[in-house]
Amino acid sequence: MSTPWILGLTGGIGSGKSAAAEHFTRLGVHLIDADHAARWVVEPGRPALARIAEHFGPHVLQPDGQLDRGALRQLIFQDEQQRRWLESLLHPLIGEEIRSYLARAESPYAILVSPLLIESGQHHMTQRVLVVDVPEHLQLQRTMARDQVSEEQIKAILSAQATREERLRQAHDVLHNDRDPAWLRCEVERLHHFYLTLRGGQP
């Protein structure tokens, strides 16, 4: 059996990349979410968690020993240097986790879903990049409705992500997700049929 080629799937916060990813899995495509890999590498008992607690102090841990993501997020969004320190610790570990999962995939192509596909350099693990794209006002509207957070918080997250232009520059394919869920599913199916015709991610 031939090794699957890897599609990178990305999009800004509130773009609908998770909904798109979910539909790809319904079509039988193996997929790993970089956010899930990021959670696995900081589980209790893993070396990364001990390093984080040592660096930031015990207040970034919950009483049960799990990472307190909220406390850590506050620290790193206020301090660029701390964010870089954390990224340099976690990105290589997340990369290893992703690679080992993708190596076991059995569909004709496999997907790496990552909000930071471009910024983290994870797109180098892929042969093709699909960007789920929406105008910024829709990103804000959808994320505020979904997460019940302020516009300021969302804008802070947006500023830490690649700009829409940067993402689109790296894209081989763009899925414009500015309509309803049925449209999104049709677009995913159209892309899926196209991807099944590709070898190594190239036409």
From TrEMBL:
Keywords: ATP-binding, Coenzyme A biosynthesis, Cytoplasm, Kinase, Nucleotide-binding, Transferase. Pathway: Cofactor biosynthesis; coenzyme A biosynthesis; CoA from (R)-pantothenate: step 5/5. Its EC number is 2.7.1.24. It is found in: Cytoplasm. One of its GO terms (molecular function) is ATP binding. Belongs to the CoaE family. Its main location: cytoplasm. This is Dephospho-CoA kinase. InterPro entries: Depp_CoAkinase, P-loop_NTPase. The keyword Zinc-finger does not apply. One of its GO terms (cellular component) is cytoplasm. It catalyses: 3'-dephospho-CoA + ATP = ADP + CoA + H(+). One of its GO terms (biological process) is coenzyme A biosynthetic process. Catalyzes the phosphorylation of the 3'-hydroxyl group of dephosphocoenzyme A to form coenzyme A. It comes from the Bacteria. ATP binds at residues 14-19. NCBIfam families: dephospho-CoA kinase. It comes from Aquipseudomonas campi.
